[in-house]
Design a protein that fits this description.
With about 200 residues, this protein is mainly alpha-helical. It has a single domain, classed as Jann2411-like fold (Orthogonal Bundle), CATH 1.10.3300. The chain has seven helices and six strands. The strands form three sheets. It has a two-stranded antiparallel sheet with strand order 1-2. A two-stranded antiparallel ribbon has the order 3-4. Strands 5-6 form a two-stranded antiparallel ribbon. The radius of gyration is 18 Å and the shape is globular.
Length: about 200
């Protein structure tokens, strides 16, 4: 009897270069939940606050309550749904509603830098400000054309966020040697079972 061995996300992480800044922040945020190993860096309010503060999104002294943590996780999973949609998976209507709700509540503002370039930024402190900053990164990446390259792996038991650097934007898996091969092996087995050769 053979057991399935899978490369842990750090292998996936090491084999894929990061997304360009500031989009890397969104990729890292989505990857706080490891679907395959069922771990979550945002597992409780304190951990969520520590992650947000560690990434410059929240002042270190701000404490999150369970409702705050739930909002953070809700945004993360709605963003994951968008990244799956960037990879050809149908976008869940509930994710769109969630994102619209966050966008309506987010304290966003447009700012010009000294060169006259405009950018959308999050403002205000607290959890809403932190989430607003993440949404601002999404808005900026849509504007600069990098958003569609940020994807979530199509393997249901992975869904690791990665930045697709392929020339034709056709990457489907976080790591072809792991998730791509799993998919090919599963497809082959299914074809054999159904008599398709």
């Amino acid at each position: 009897m053979s057991t399935r061995t899978a490369a842990p996300p750090p292998t996936a992480e090491a084999s894929r270069p990061p997304a360009p800044e500031p989009l890397e922040l969104v990729r890292a945020f989505v990857n706080t939940r490891d679907v395959e190993s069922a771990t979550d860096e945002l597992g409780d309010p304190e951990a969520a606050g520590t992650w947000l503060a560690g990434h410059g999104l929240l002042d270190a002294g701000v404490r999150l309550d369970p409702a705050d943590r739930e909002r953070v996780v809700e945004l993360r999973e709605a963003l994951r749904a968008l990244l799956l949609a960037n990879n050809g998976v149908d976008l869940e209507p509930a994710a769109v509603e969630t994102l619209n709700s966050f966008a309506a509540a987010a304290p966003l503002e447009a700012r010009f830098d000294p060169t006259g370039t405009i950018a959308v930024t999050g403002r205000d402190g607290g959890v809403e400000g932190a989430l607003g900053q993440l949404l601002a990164v999404v808005v900026q990446s849509v504007a600069d054309g990098t958003w569609t390259r940020l994807k979530a792996c199509r393997e249901d038991d992975c869904q690791w966020a990665f930045y697709d650097r392929s020339r034709n934007r056709s990457g489907q898996w976080c790591v072809m040697a792991v998730c791509g091969n799993r998919n090919k092996a599963r497809t082959y087995r299914e074809r054999r079972r159904s008599g398709g050769g």
